[in-house]
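Board work, copied verbatim: Domain X domain-containing protein
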Amino acid sequence: MYRHLSLPFLRRHRRFLSYAASAFPRVPPYSPRPPPPPPPQGHPTLLPGHSSRNPRDPLSTAYDDPSSLLRDDPISICSSLWVDSFRDPSATASSLAPLLRRLELWVLAYQKAYADETGSYLPKSSVPSSALHSLLALRNAVLDGRFRWGVRLDLLLRSPRDTTDPATLSKRKLRVLLTSAQPPPFQDRVVQEVLLMILEPIFEARFSQKSFAFRPGRTAHTVIRTIRRSFAGYLWYIKGDLSTILDGLPTGLIINALIRDVRDKKVVDLIKSALTTPVITGRPVNEEAAKKKKKKRKYQKKRVLAEDEPKPDPYWLQTFFGFAPEEAEKQPNWGHCGALSSLLANVCLDELDKWMEGKIKEFYRPSKSDVIWTGDDVEQGNTSWPEFVPTSGPDKTRKMDYVRYGGHFLIGVRGPRADAAVLRKQLIEFCDQRYQLKLDNESLPIEHITKGIMFLDHVLCRRVVYPTLRYTATGGKIISEKGVGTLLSVTASLRQCIKQFRKLEFLKGDRDPDPQPCFRMFHATQAHTNAQMNKFLQTMAEWYRYADNRKKVVNFCSYIVRGSLAKLYAAKYKLRSRAKVYKIGSRNLSRPLKDKKGQSPEYQNLLRMGLLDSIDGLQYTRMSLVPEADYTPFPSGWRPDHEKFLLEYIRLLDPKTLEEQRCCLREEGLITPQDYVSLLVWNYKKNTLMLPPPGESNSYKVKEELLGSISNETKDGMGDDEASIDALQAAHM
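↓ predict structure ↓
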């Protein structure tokens, strides 16, 4: 590990190096390595860390250039993996090592990690040659079992921003590097991305349609629309919190869940080592001792960002992530798995999803007198208004449904409360057996819909409505009559919104919230501050897109932000009150505020001369400007777009589908364009041999004879089908 360090440095820090070797056994102590033997004649020099193998072997080192191994497009490799996984979801993945050998996937993973690290996309043609050599060395280390997670010094692949040379580090910096918490190494993130690209298609084809978190194409909005679509008829709800599973599970449980579908030893061992390798978290900080040792902060020169370095806005990021709902606040981070943690969490929780799907089938007992579900589990009623449930008799269908978002789930039960209590008892036993998680009745409350169910910062409740029902009777007569039923209402929780604003110090008070100035934007310009707050308001309007009270809650957010900015500008420009700020800057704060140094030229003149940035006014300052709630009907059996395209593509590749389409064409008396072209070419070749060579005078006549013979043969082959003859004559024209 210390082969790059000089001999005097090692002599000076011999004691510290021996301490580091004993404290971290996974880092081998220093031992000088013998020089590599000279390469054989006729072969170029080998790269470090590689053995002389057959150049045709995928594991062997590229003797000329690693770019010679980049034969295929990595996107096509990933696409074929997705297609194969969805074509046969029940197949066990037993051989994934050939995919690990594909250097194209490693380059694609490097591009993703590079984009996360630098904030800019790196094209494949711009990947430096040194990075390709490092990626090849990292790939071979993973395949040979020499790769170790969490290495700090002996790195095979360094971050594009890491310019640190271990030989130049002092004793104190080495101690800090080896004993304090550090971001995961760049090479670990590349390995995680490669494993994610290989494992995600395999498990996405197997996952239940009831889970929505940490999956492509599924968001919290999908959960809300699913609840609005399918949970209208349920009376009792069980809300559960399994977020402690996201903090971590025993390694044996995770590996057992993984090997049910993945039997490749190399991949399983790699993930197992990522889970078992300890993570350096640093020493616990004593807050009282830190306060005593805290001295007066000296002046520090501000760091100038590079041109290609992204310009972060920490206040905007904190504001955005501060409004995350409770169900989405926690994300799994297990050992050195990183981006793989979310996938592994879904793999473990998929057992719960499959168990609940079985319980849903067992619990279903249809009733003929029910107006919602029939015995064939087909929903009745108006599908364009699924939130409305007509009033039915006492005999109701017993049915339940289930959705899960991360570690939180919601179960709706239509039936007596005793059925929900039995299900809760079985659920507690299942979690105790599978996840070693102790739950009780308080952690799984059973609540009635009339009390309001909070899920993803939205409240589910119902109210009795008396709509006018119109239908067409016998004879075409339209009849209108009053109906009665219940309507499922999905509204945004204003109390939760106030709580989040209070956490971000935007306001104080509960019943009568009072906006507070956001002094963190004190040194920013008015244009920049308004632009950032408009981003925040657009985010809120999009988050509450499917809430019934979208106009009310978004207008409330705009009122809080506008009042906070007005107090900030009043303190910044010494204007004393919000009323004066609104008088000068208008209601939406779109006009520049006058400074205390005196009158400034007119805003329009400065803007026309290009001496001033345009100031965007705050959005949604009036309720009429807020968009309406989105009531677009959610289709039954919904799937993300990429899954629909995959399934349609697989169906079109099936020979049975092609034969079915041809049978339908024959039954309808039609002919495909491909068959018609084949028939035309064949008849042309056959009849050309029978005709004399055409001259300049009779070329038109030969053409007519050819087309006439084709038409006659087509008539004889198709019989007296007039539709086919008309189709062929139209094609001749």
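The chain has 26 helices and twelve strands.
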